[in-house]
Design a protein that fits this description.
Elements lengths: L2 H12 L24 E9 L9 E10 L5 E10 L6 H9 L7 E2 L3 E7 L4 E9 L14 E12 L8 E12 L13 E9 L16 H5 L4 H10 L8 E5 L1 H11 L3 E2 L1 E8 L26 E3 L4 E7 L22 E7 L4 E2 L3 H15 L4 E3 L7 H6 L3 H19 L5 E2 L2 E2 L8 H9 L4 E5 L3 E2 L5 E6 L2 E8 L7 H17 L5 E3 L9 H16 L3 E3 L5 H4 L5 E5 L3 H6 L3 H19 L14 H4 L1 H6 L12 H19 L2 E3 L6 E3 L6 E7 L5 E7 L1 H7 L1 E3 L5 E3 L3 E7 L1 E3 L3 E10 L5 E12 L4 H37 L1
Parallel strand pairs: 9-10, 9-24, 9-25, 10-17, 17-18, 19-20, 20-23, 22-26, 28-36
Antiparallel strand pairs: 1-2, 2-6, 3-4, 3-5, 3-7, 7-8, 11-16, 12-14, 12-15, 13-33, 21-26, 22-23, 27-29, 29-33, 30-32, 30-35, 31-34, 35-36
Amino acid sequence: MTLARRLWWLLAALLVLGTTTPAAAAHLRAPQGEFAGTLRFEIDSVTPALVTDTSSSIGISGRMINTGSEELTGVVARWQRGAAFTSTAGVRAEIAEPGQPEAVLTTFGPVTDTIAAGGTVPFTLKTDAFVRDRGGLGIQAPGVYPVMLNVNASFASGPASGARVGELHVLLTVASVPDGTNVVGTRQPVAMLMPLVDRPHRDPTGAFFDDDLTPLISTGGRLADVLAAAEAPGLPAGAVTLAVDPELLEELQLMGAGYTVGPYLFDITRGGATGTAAPDTTTPADTTSSIPTTSSVVPSTTAAITATTEAGSTTIANTGSTAADTTTGVGATTYEAVPDPAAVQGTGAAAAIDFLARLRELSATVPVLVLPYTDIDAVAAVRAGHPEQVAAAVERGRELAGSILGPQAQLVANVSWPIDGLVDPVALSVLRGTGQTTVVLDRAGVVGTDRDLTTIVTGSGDVQAVLASSRVPDSAVELNHFTALTGQRFFSGDTAATVVAPARGWQPDLGEYSSVSSLLGTLEAAGLVTGVRVDRVSSAAAGTAAVAALDYPAAAAARELPQGLFGRVQGLAQELASTQLALDPLATDDPATAAPADLFTDVQDGLSRQAAGGFRDDLGAVSRSNAAVEAVVDTVQQGVTLTPSTSVYTLTSSTSPLLVNIRNDLPYTAHVRIEVNAADAVRAGITVTDVGVQTVPAGRNVQVPIPAEIIRAGSSSVRVKLTTPDGAAWGPEQTLRLRSTAIGSFTVVLIIAAAGIVVLSTAIRIRTRVRQRRERIAAGLQ
């Protein structure tokens, strides 16, 4: 180190004051000077959070990291303070883009001798908020002040006198000063949303397809920690509002009653025959004579139909038995969900009972914001053309929350909180139409205002928008910002609430969360804040909120559930509806068998879970759920099948019909169509006539002749399949193998035409030869 630099360092040491920094936040930005970004700061603590006339000594601890390639020597620092802010907007601007406060400049004091290139040095700096003569900040009135630590050092390639190598920006919130000049104002409302939300763990059939909810509600799990944070003392009374997905409540209730995880079997069973069966008059498929054009009915000999699916432990329909059908020889019928041998017992029953009991107790004193059922991805659903799903989810959520949490619960039903705090105008209008007159939004989703409470105009009415922070202050920097913003609202007389609305997947670190509780308790004790329910935020603010507009970011749209998912779910719903409509209602004297409408009621309702916002991060779970619905449809459709012969149909007549057997093992009369693959028919040289909807009685076989005209002889095959009356697919295709020895009318026409052509060509040749002979004779005579 040069002599000049040593003297400069000594002078700085002699002039040092106790170094300082307020309850503050570190900024990595270093806008002043060529080398001002050399140091990076990591802050561990800033004390006190709130400066008062009895707590003026300010300390900040952390680490300085040399990001440059040269050693720093003679590291010194001074404090710079600016004037108090006059508005909340000014505080926000300082947080976003720190300035250069210069109202008060202290002298430089030593920090450390050296910081190696890439090295890290811990530091603790202290100063006094009110003292000025020894280098304090000289604050004389309450308010929020910008403060900067200006760090200088020497290095080989820098100026001989050293240069600024770093800046640490903090905000100092002062509630009172020693001379007793204190601000008296209205306490600032503070509200905090705590989300109890997760993706569904059941498919549309009601099955638990995983047991992933159990660790979430057990000790140390995300949801358990959120509930513990809401139960913890320290926050201002009324500050916490739980945000609960009613679908989660439904799952907890089911888990507490005992549940299984894994596949279930859906059985449609028809018992064995007890009467005299009708004779089987089915004509064999392979015959050398023309197939009869009349059909006969025979009883089914299949005892049961089963299909494996991922299903829940709840019974889908009533079960029981009926007296044997002595006419058809068919006995009892049931339709129920029963555990597959591969299913396992769920492990979360006890945890679910405890969690739900604690939540019920807490809901009597802490308000519960009722989210739409499954926390539906409202924007995606509306974009897909299904606003009715959003309205239905809101209504169903309210009903479930009321019935599960009980009458003592303080339910909030008029506030919406979209996923990520972002929503587009159309979806917000739909939510407003359900009676949700207040919406909690992230500031990034609104333009045209710098306020915390604003009005959004929608097609269904105005909505009061509460602009919230998605960050829960859990670090020294964030706690400092939170204190400054809250304090400035108080000093400015701004009665708009400070609202914190963390992301759906927020899991509080309970150790760090105590810092938040402690801070809010300190602010409450100082008379700066008071707790407020989120549904009373707008009424707590004085004056009329300005009108602003929504700004739905492209990044938010990219996170939505894909539109194709809604199309797939709609297709499954149509499959269920078409299958159900193909079945006749049961007779009134058959109470033990589920009516066709009951086969799919629960599954249709369960399809609403496919639009859950939590599936944004787990589309694989949606695919598993869709597969379960397909399995239920297959279970029913396997009860009505084509049963073609494995032999060859021999067609001896040009108008021999194709004979198709339809077997109905269901306890319902079924109505289906038969569809012959058109391309196969052309290749086979046959034309067929549509025979319309076929009615197949329960437990019977029906032989259906399909009128056909044979165009040519030979061997071929055609694919046939069943459809519902409205044309939806019913089961897999089957193949009919054909051998035709008949000559069709078209073939006869071709033969006659060919014969005519032969005769005509022969006559032409004879005529030509006669003419040529005459010409030769005539030429010879000449």
